[in-house]
Each structure stands twice: as structure tokens, then as C-alpha cells.
Design goal:
Helices cover 38% and strands 19% of the residues. By secondary structure, it is an alpha+beta fold. The protein is globular, with a radius of gyration of 29 Å. The protein folds into 6 domains: 59 residues, Helix Hairpins; 225 residues, DNA ligase/mRNA capping enzyme (D-amino Acid Aminotransferase, Chain A, domain 1, 2-Layer Sandwich), CATH 3.30.470.30; 107 residues, OB fold (Dihydrolipoamide Acetyltransferase, E2P) (Beta Barrel); 74 residues, 5' to 3' exonuclease, C-terminal subdomain (DNA polymerase, domain 1, Orthogonal Bundle), CATH 1.10.150; 78 residues, 5' to 3' exonuclease, C-terminal subdomain (DNA polymerase, domain 1), CATH 1.10.150.20; 68 residues, Rossmann fold, CATH 3.40.50.10190. Strands 12, 13, 14, 15, 16 and 17 form a 6-stranded antiparallel beta sheet that branches.
Length: 669
């Protein structure tokens, strides 16, 4: 090796170490001028000898070209969510479950602040940074390798030539965030609303140079497969520190319920001393052996929990109540508030659920009300703190959209507008739903455009979607030849290719979701056959529907009522007259899943429609609820407890999408 080449490698390593001291430890050992001199020397050597440049060079923090899109990264080991707890009683119950799972042994816990940032995963090969990704849905994330490389606290190379995967949180510190927003305002740009949203938007920038210009920090909290390197979580974190990763300095270990409770209480007073936003604490069993013994559900590890700090609360003035009408005619009240900052966002509206809730709170215009963000996300009104002298707010008697008298069905708390065919607000939401990706899949006709087309008289019902032409659309405001042609092409494609399942689901029949729609479509095979059955009368049609596996009396009555109602039947007949009369492709009867029954739940990597199609094309059957007849529950992220509990009750095996792929196309061993 030449002296110049050796000098280059020495410089690269020396500058990387100065970066670590400055950005990770906040303890620089040289002046800015000295650093700049070394960096200029390194750049000069790389310009003169480009073949010398190593992947971990400090000059490679910014990629040379923006990316057009982010490829997907599929993980072998998913980033599971954590179960949440909001008080010490629930935390004690978690501890008791852990102790029971360990046969009575008191575990040691590792406790650290739960940063309100963006989950990331980084991969090192031979000790060199090779891949970076967002959390995504846990199983699949976006490849943002170039963007994460710009984060100065992330080591480009670690102290040992290891192959490891490390997970952490990217975030803005509050002081950095405030300075950045001041600069944006001075430049005439919109400030970011809060650190988390600003960081999320930054990591999704297509140009890494823009990411490099913003003060993104990161802390790392988990070594994937850590038991290959250390006996415990705390030991693996200590090793990560030695390798050069930034790890939270606020991590503590405790043993037993009393120590855990005392630490949680202490943290509620300390939370505001942190330089970043934190919405709680993450509590993990330390021993990897204990973790293996405790295991995990399909959604949560049993050895960890997130303790959420009490929600931030503020008071403001209630200016009134706004009523909105949705696709099903339900009228929802929303509190109209004096704008107030809450947990980093400006809140002007807060949910009230229904008018029974308004009555329970005794709301009056001009009240000072206490609001909080439920789960740090959704603003809601908790109570009146200073009542006004105005009369109590009363529920509306007429639809705020069409003026029709409102009704309340027996046993329901919701007010509804029954004018489903003549209510503009319902039609606007209905068109948006009808054209959605999982229904008729007509891109380019969302809420805003639906509202516009209803206003100008081009849409009176959902069948009118199929009467739209380029000549009708181009003269309208915010339309041009290209947008009009794209929509008309999407409409024509839906007419040609939509299945009966998609149409039945798109009609918005109460209680009829995608699974029930597919069962009905498979039974009849074509819209013509379905309508012929409906022509035999509502009772006869409902009776036939109940013979379909998975269709109970409630769904059958709802579907029969829809197709025999004169108003809704007229719209379906209009669709047929316009050439919308789809059939259903036959399912694969003798495929590898023949005779098996599946329930699909949670957030999936593929669309739910695609997963169901794959199952049925392979000969399987999909139903909406778990029973003893169910062969498998296919679970993605964010699985509801009801289906998981039912799977446990009936002894149904829970599998992932990857497991399903293996059932359909077994890999050679």
C-alpha cells in the first residue's frame, strides 16, 4: 500500500471518529477549522484517486442523485407493535403475566423513554452500513438507505466486521426543530406542525441532499437476534454503544413490580427534561432466555409493553357543534373550537361521537371545555370546566345536507338521514366509496371531484359515473384533457374488468363487506342471476342467501332488502342498462387449498382483495368470522383482539402472509 493510500484510509477513519464524537457524544475534540482542513484533504485525495473511495467514507453521506421512488424491503423478522398500558394497575397486571409465564420468577426489566419519532431499521454487512428502511407495516418498509446515510449519528462503519440488524427511532430534537422552523418562516416557507411529522416528511424526501440539510437524529434500541451476541438486552445495548451506535443515555434496569412502579412514577415528572418528544416508556424483559420462554402473540411480544404517559390536556372555548352526514346517512356531531395548541398540533375540531355524548357532557355554546388527544392522536372533548349561560345544545331534527327529517332506529344512538337517494352529502361519500380501490377501482374520482360533479348536475346517483365523457368534463374548473381522459379510461376499464364481487361490495349494502360480497358473487356467478333471484321476492331471496356459507340472517335480510327496494333496484337496473353487468370468475376447485377455510384480518402487505383472491384461486374458502370450521387465520399487523381470541378459543392456527404463500406454493426443501 502506498503512503498516499494509507494516508487516505487514516483520514477517512479519523474524520469518522470526529463525526462520532461531535454528533453522538456531543464532545468534539478538534475545532471546526481543523475538521474542515481534514475534510478538504480527504475530498482532494478522493478526487485524485476515485478508485480509492471506500463505502464508509464520510464524504458519501449524501447520494449523488435523487431517487424517483423507494423500493420495498421485506423483513424476515417483523417489527412487532407493542401492547399499550395507561396506568399502574395495568402495568402491574402485565408484570403478573410475565411472572406467571416465567413460572414465578421475578424478571429484570429494561426501561427507556418511548421516543415520538419514526421507526427505522439499519443493516450492516462486514461492519459497513448497507441498508436502511422505515418500519412500514412491520413486515414491509421503504428502502431509504441513501437518506439514512446522511444522518451524522449513524455510523458508516462499526468497530467490528459483523453482520447485524439494528432498530431505532429517527427524530428531531425540540431545539433543532424550533430553529429549523424559524429558518423556514424567514424563507417564506410553511413551518412544520410538529417534530414527528417533520421527521417523517424528511425521511420520505426523494433527494438525500435535502435530508442531509435537516437536523435528523437517531437512537437505537434493539439488536435483532440479539441473543446471538449477548445473553441479555442490556448487554446487547452496551455492545452497540461500543460499536459506535447512539443508544439512549436514559436507559435503566429494575427488578420486580415495586421498582418498576417507582421508576414509572419518577419518569412522569422527568419527561419534560428530555430533548425530544416522548409519549411514554418502553418496558422490556432483559433476559433473552426469558423472552424465548414468554414468546409472542401474532401482534405483540409478551415480554414487552409500552407505558403511555397521561395525555396532554388543554382547555378552550366551544364555539358550536358542526353536524356532518356520511355515506350511510349517519349524522356525526363535531365540536367547533377556538384554535388551541395540543401536543404539537393546532386543534380546531374535536370528536363528540354522537348526540348522546353531547347530552352527557351538557354542552353549551361558549363553554370552556377540556380536550385531550386520545392515544396522543385524536382530539376529544372530556368535560366542561366553565359552563356558559347559553341554553344546552340540542340535536338536529333535519339533515344538514338535504333537509330531510332525521330518524333514530330502535336500539341505535345515531341519528340518520333516511334520504339515501336524494341526500347530496351521502351521494358524495357514496361516489367516493363506489370508486375506491377495493371496490370498482376507478382512480380520479374522489370526494372533491364527486362534490363538484354533483354540484354541476352530472351525478345524480352512482350509475351516472358511467355516463361521464371527456366532453362533459373538460369545460369544468380544474379539469383538462388529460385528467378527463384518464378518468373516462378508468371508468371504461371498470366496466370491462370489474368482477361481481367488486360491484356488490361497491353498492354499499349494510353489513355486506368484501368477504360477504365475494360469497354472494361466487354463489350466483353473474349479476343477471342475482337479480333474477331477487325478482322472486324479498323473503325467497333472503332464504336463498342464508344457504350460502358465511351469510347469516342479518346479512341476508340486508342484501335482500337492498335488491328488492324500488329505489336502489332502479339504480342497479340503470347500471345494467349502461353496460355494467359483471360476472364472477370461477374459483380454483382443486388447488392446494381445496377444502380449507380462511379468515383474513389485520394490515396486510398485499391488498386484502388480492390475498382473498389468492386463497380462492388456490381452491380455499374465505369467511368473515373465526369458527371451529376455520382452518387458518391469516393475520397481518394491527390485528383486532376479537379474531385472535376466537382463534385461541377454537384452536385455529394463526399464520402470516408468508406462511400462506408457503401453503400455496411450497418451497423445495
Amino acid at each position: 500500500m502506498t503512503d498516499a493510500r494509507a494516508r487516505y484510509l487514516q483520514l477517512a477513519q479519523e474524520i469518522a471518529e470526529h463525526d462520532r464524537r461531535y454528533h453522538v457524544e456531543a464532545r468534539p475534540t478538534i475545532s471546526d477549522a481543523e475538521y474542515d482542513r481534514l475534510y478538504a484533504e480527504l475530498r482532494g485525495l478522493e478526487a485524485e484517486h476515485p478508485d480509492w473511495v471506500v463505502p464508509w467514507s464520510p464524504t458519501r453521506r449524501v447520494a449523488p442523485k435523487p431517487t424517483s421512488e423507494f423500493p420495498k424491503v421485506v423483513r424476515a423478522i417483523p417489527m412487532l407493535s407493542l401492547d399499550n398500558t395507561y396506568d399502574e394497575a395495568e402495568l402491574a397486571a402485565f408484570h403478573d403475566r410475565v411472572v406467571k409465564g416465567l413460572g414465578g420468577e421475578d424478571p429484570t426489566y429494561v426501561v427507556e423513554p418511548k421516543i415520538d419519532g419514526i421507526g427505522i431499521e439499519v443493516v450492516y454487512r462486514d461492519g459497513v452500513y448497507a441498508l436502511g428502511a422505515t418500519r412500514g407495516d412491520g413486515r414491509t418498509g421503504d428502502d431509504i438507505t441513501a437518506n439514512l446515510r446522511t444522518i451524522r449519528v449513524l455510523p458508516a462503519r462499526v468497530g467490528e466486521p459483523v453482520a447485524i440488524t439494528v432498530r431505532g427511532e429517527a427524530f428531531f430534537e425540540r431545539a433543532d426543530f424550533d430553529k429549523m422552523n424559524e429558518a423556514r418562516i424567514a424563507d417564506g416557507e410553511e413551518p412544520f406542525m410538529n417534530p414527528r411529522n417533520g421527521c417523517a416528511g424528511t425521511l420520505k424526501q426523494k433527494d438525500p441532499a435535502l435530508v442531509a440539510a435537516r437536523p435528523v437524529k437517531a437512537l437505537f434500541y434493539e439488536l435483532v437476534d440479539g441473543d446471538r451476541f449477548a445473553p441479555s438486552h442490556s448487554a446487547s445495548l452496551a455492545w452497540l454503544r461500543r460499536l459506535g451506535f447512539p443508544v439512549s443515555p436514559d436507559i435503566e434496569t429494575v427488578r420486580g413490580r415495586d421498582e418498576l412502579g417507582a421508576l414509572v412514577r419518577a419518569w412522569e415528572a422527568r419527561r419534560d427534561t428530555l430533548p425530544f418528544d416522548a409519549d411514554g416508556l418502553v418496558i422490556k424483559v432483559d433476559s433473552y432466555a426469558h423472552r424465548r420462554e414468554l414468546g409472542a402473540t401474532a401482534k405483540f411480544p409478551r415480554w414487552a409493553i409500552a407505558y403511555k404517559f397521561p395525555a396532554r390536556q388543554v382547555t378552550t372555548i366551544l364555539r358550536g357543534i358542526i353536524n356532518t352526514v356520511g355515506r350511510t346517512g349517519m349524522v356525526t356531531p363535531t365540536a367547533d373550537l377556538d384554535p388551541v395548541e395540543l401536543s404539537g398540533t393546532i386543534v380546531k375540531r374535536a370528536g363528540l361521537h354522537n348526540w348522546d355524548q353531547v347530552a352527557r357532557l351538557g354542552l353549551r355554546r361558549g363553554d370552556r371545555v377540556l380536550i385531550e388527544k386520545a392515544g396522543e392522536i385524536i382530539p376529544q372533548v372530556l368535560q366542561v370546566t366553565e359552563p356558559s349561560t347559553n341554553p344546552p345544545e340540542t340535536p338536529p331534527t333535519e339533515c344538514p345536507s338535504c333537509g330531510h327529517a332525521l330518524v333514530r332506529a330502535e336500539g341505535e344512538v345515531a341519528l340518520r338521514c333516511p334520504n339515501r337517494l336524494g341526500c347530496r352529502s351521502q351521494l358524495m361519500w357514496f361516489v367516493d366509496f363506489f370508486c375506491g380501490r377495493s371496490t370498482m377501482n376507478i382512480a380520479g374520482l374522489g370526494l372533491e371531484r364527486a362534490d363538484q360533479l354533483i354540484e354541476v348536475g352530472l351525478l345524480h346517483d352512482i350509475a351516472d359515473v358511467f355516463t361521464l365523457t371527456v366532453d362533459k368534463l373538460v369545460p369544468l374548473e380544474r379539469w383538462n384533457d388529460k385528467s378527463a381522459q384518464n378518468l373516462v379510461a378508468a371508468i371504461a376499464d371498470a366496466k370491462r374488468n370489474a368482477t361481481l364481487t367488486r360491484l356488490v361490495a361497491a353498492l354499499g349494502i349494510p353489513h355486506v363487506g368484501g368477504v360477504a360480497a365475494r360469497s354472494i358473487a361466487r354463489h350466483f356467478g353473474s349479476l343477471a342471476a342475482l337479480l333474477a333471484a331477487a325478482d322472486r321476492g324479498e323473503d325467497a331471496f333472503a332464504g336463498e342467501l342464508t344457504t350460502i356459507d358465511g351469510i347469516g340472517d342479518i346479512i341476508a335480510r340486508a342484501a335482500a332488502g337492498f335488491f328488492t327496494d324500488p329505489g336502489t333496484r332502479a339504480i342497479v337496473d340503470k347500471l345494467v342498462a349502461l353496460g355494467v353487468s359483471p360476472a364472477e370468475p370461477a374459483a380454483g376447485a382443486a388447488g392446494p387449498l381445496h377444502g380449507m377455510s380462511f379468515v383474513v384480518t389485520g394490515t396486510l402487505v398485499r391488498s386484502r382483495e388480492e390475498v382473498i383472491r389468492r386463497i380462492e384461486d388456490a381452491g380455499g374458502k374465505v369467511t368473515g368470522s373465526v369458527s371451529k370450521k376455520t382452518s387458518y387465520l391469516v393475520a397481518g399487523a394491527d390485528v383486532g383482539r376479537a379474531k385472535m381470541d376466537a382463534a385461541v378459543k377454537h384452536g385455529v392456527k394463526v399464520i402470516t402472509e408468508r406462511d400462506l404463500d408457503e401453503l400455496i406454493e411450497p418451497r423445495p426443501r
